[in-house]
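Exercise (ungraded).
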Amino acid sequence: QKEVEQDPGPLSVPEGAIVSLNCTYSNSAFQYFMWYRQYSRKGPELLMYTYSSGNKEDGRFTAQVDKSSKYISLFIRDSQPSDSATYLCAMSLNAGGTSYGKLTFGQGTILTVHP
Amino acid sequence: GAVVSQHPSWVICKSGTSVKIECRSLDFQATTMFWYRQFPKQSLMLMATSNEGSKATYEQGVEKDKFLINHASLTLSTLTVTSAHPEDSSFYICSATGFPGEKLFFGSGTQLSVL
């Protein structure tokens, strides 16, 4: 079993739709949770991060963490064609020091938002 | 803002040759750098962690004699793929954290194709 499971999709939605992306994980020691956006053959770009259960909102993006269920989600409201990319969840054991950068990634979900 | 510059963005080489990939931090001191590998439609997998002035720490299953990492300064880390073979063809991405801020930044990646 992979430490982090993410449905690879692909996911295709119309412009304006609400998108829900999810990851489950098996290691309860993960403390720090992130969502990255990656365009083809580019480095990942950090979208959201959180280190506690609950919701965190930033513009059209909402990150949700449920540590009891080992489940995280990213919601995108009013999706735009420019949101089309691969979305990766990532986790680390600690929020600081060297461990901060040792990320375990999900497989990534390919999202296409069509006009 | 702080960025990580990675070069080259793509490289094609013959089997048996060595390839060097550079990762430079701009506007911040990268005390720790991380090297990831991403095969097509798969997640980023951490290969190794390097701290400035120290030997790199490799993840299980990564051959340290094949993937040579040097982090001799606070702004530069290099990954050398020695005696490259077609199975080493992959997308390699570096990331860095340091001061000020201790944020994590990713490079833009290097697509390596070994013929």
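Further reading is listed at the end of the chapter. For now, observe: The CA atoms of residues 86 and 98 of chain A lie 26 Å apart. Chain A has no helices and eleven strands.
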